[in-house]
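Changelog note: in this version the structure field was regenerated for every chain. One regenerated record is shown below for reference.
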Amino acid sequence: MDVPLLKSAKNLKNKRVLLRADFNVPIRDGVVLDDFRIKKIIPTIQFLKDAHAEVILLSHHSDAKQSLHPVARYLNSEHFKTYFIEDIYDAASFEKAREISAKAGAHILFCENLRKWPGETANGHSFAEHLASLGDAYVNDAFSASHREHASIVTLPTLLPSYAGLLFEEEVKNLSRVFAPPHPSLLILGGAKAAAKLSAAERLLPTVDALFIGGALAHNFFHMLGREIGMSVFEKSGANLNAMLSSGKLRLPLDVIVQNEGGVFTKNLHEVKPQDKILDAGPATLKSLEPLVSEARFIVWNGPLGDYTVPGFEKGSVRLIEILARSKAKIIAGGGDSVALITREKREDAFDFLSTAGGAMLAFLSERTLPGIRALAASS
């Protein structure tokens, strides 16, 4: 990754550093429900504090109406004294908060959800210029948002001295291992988002030794093979499914868990009926994954094997976590749903690296770069 790195930055003392983080986390009734992404950026904030820089946190939430105040409160109570800025255009309030923060020795300001302002998603140059006016330097530690051509990701770094943060560097270093993995290597993909994930599978097919496709992604192959998928989730994909099928590397579910008006049943693929909805992988499928996992030296997993949001249909993915935990392979996992299950099951220690990224991970694996990476490279 040929970009300027934060750990190599000099002279940050008393500099106002705009730190682009990804605090797009689940929030309910003003409470942060999952702090995985927040905890992952703590080392970068600490690095900047140790360098005696003034940290100005920038982030988005996918819901433009969702305030990031709950995240600021969480950060303030659990990690660092933080001052929240509701309106980044209110110069008087901004400077007052800076003064209060400095007197308290905190030097951390937390700005409101960037998507509150249309200039963020429109990649507005004037919006990026305003953000740049708030700081002296820029750090991108939002790898998980760097597949988006938004103002704070691709234009802001062209206006200030810019660096890749510690987490950003860690993400690129670990995910790049997929391009030349130890052998045998195994790629496991599940969940939905067929276009992105199957495109990544197609791109990575030459580099991996085995490819398992589960979750709703498998329905694309079932459909092409003339199998009944009933009322199951189905998204079209432009990927070359035939190439994957004929590669000799592809493995698909052998059985599935379905739900219909009569209840929940385990069925072989030829038994699925039009009234069925496939919601999880069956026991034979999980059994078939055991030798693949045990033989592999390197494994990448993104996406659950079932719809874990429906109670009872997370069992296949939880079983997969148990199988992976017994492996001696180097294992990387990513995707919000996968990581949420791993942290829920408290099995983080079974994985060598947990990525904060979902869509950005897939985009990076497909393209080997991201708009955010290109912007940082151009700023150097």
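Spot check on this record: The mean pLDDT is 94. Residues 36-50 form the longest helix (15 residues).
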